[in-house]
Amino acid sequence: MGNIAKSVAFLETDDCFKTCANSDEVLEDVKTLLPLEHGGHAFVFKTSADTVLKIFRLPMVAFNGVLPEQLDPYIYFNREVNAYKCLETEMDGHFPKARRIVLITPEHEDELLKSYMRSYKPAKYRRKARKSRQDLPLKALLLDYVEGVRLTKEALLSSPDLRAELLEAISKMHACGVVWGDVKWRNIIVRVLPSQRRSAELSSPQESLCRNDAIQRALVILDFSNACFPLLDELREGLQMDISSGVLSTEEWESKREQELSIAWNMVSHGRLSNSQDTCEAR
After folding, report:
1. In angstroms, what CA-CA distances link 119 with 70, 113, 199, 255, 274?
2. Residue among 70, 39, 61 at smallest CA distance from 52
3. Residues 149-174: tens digit of each pLDDT
């Protein structure tokens, strides 16, 4: 596979993560990228190298009374990058590895995003930011691909191991100074470990997910575009408190952390999500 950082000009890349070993070799020609189910804040493509390219949307609606045109257009990207930088010390399988930042150059934006939206019009997409593709290129992250199935209420309530693992993953995240801000079923993947994949293939993904004694599992948490962080954390020294980067005062961050723990406990105890999930949310 070709090295896109050296041979193809439409993606400009920047190594900013300590975990990005061999990341020069994980991208290929745009025509080979496979669109996956998009998230609320991003378009996601699978590469042929077990990685995903996550291209972040620009804000289109107001947040906390601030109009989209007054927000940093990279609000979702900024928060996700901050989160993965904080989580680099906890790469134990609960979080995908971030390999590098990718800048989508304007001349190839149409080809990528029309895979999702045939009617994609860059000018309309940027109307709130009031900037052109040249002035406001889209930003993306290259992440490890996670193979598995989305966590379900039935699987969680039937497995004490899954419940314990979810609480452990969220606790580790908080210990790294990250409040997730987006606790949802669709953002939690149950990955079948390679040593147990053959057992899982004996049944459908959902059947194997609910068989407590069938396979070894690992929960993986995705999507940090709503994350927030405490101002006093030394990893973010010098950043200002603002809704774009997600950096909050220590007191406000602690309040968000407690709210998120309450949501998680309700999830593992009753299989329900709180009606109030806007712990750090931006839309």
Report:
1. 26, 10, 43, 42, 35
2. 39
3. 899 999 999 989 999 999 999 999 99
CA-wise closest residue to 209 among 226, 222, 196, 224: 196
The pTM assigned to this predicted structure is 0.80
- The amino acid occupying position 11 is L
Structure tokens belonging to residue 100: 């590098």
Quote the CA–CA distance of 244 and 283 in Å, as a whole number: 11
CA dihedral of residues 147, 149, 155, 161 (deg, nearest 10): 10
Tokens of 52: 């995903």
Radius of gyration of the chain (CA): 19
The CA-atom distances, in angstroms, between 57 and each of 9, 29, 38, 42, 113 are 22, 21, 10, 5, 10
Q: Nearest Cα to 219, choosing from 97, 95, 99? A: 95
